[in-house]
What does this fold into?
Amino acid sequence: MSLRPTISAYTPSNTDPKLLRRIFVQREKLLEKLIARLTRSVTSGDKHHILLIGPRGSGKTHLVSLINWELQQREELQENMRIAWLGEDDAFSGFVHLAFGIARQLAEVYPEEFPADFKKPVIGYRLMMRQLPS
It folds into this structure.
């Protein structure tokens, strides 16, 4: 019985990054351009935001998974870069829920830098604001 590497169709982050790289087709220039742009964003004041648009199955998450893996491999970026990987199936109903999702992921991956009880100060602030006279 031969064990073949598993390719997760709609969850590329569950697939070995080396395998993802091997099956990545015709977008190497785009990958390198995005990695260079994000590297510049991490190492300088020149900040970038990137929006990837395409139909389901077109390779957006595959591309982002490769970018994540490539950036994590670069030792020179580690001191100034923090990545909050949100799952492919995570859904957020608003900005606050998205912010909490990012904070939760950062607390899980970088526990020495981000507190696990990140909601406590926010909840305390909301309660204080409710008690203030109008």
Q: What stands out?
A: The chain has two domains: 1-81, 87-134. The chain has five helices and no strands.
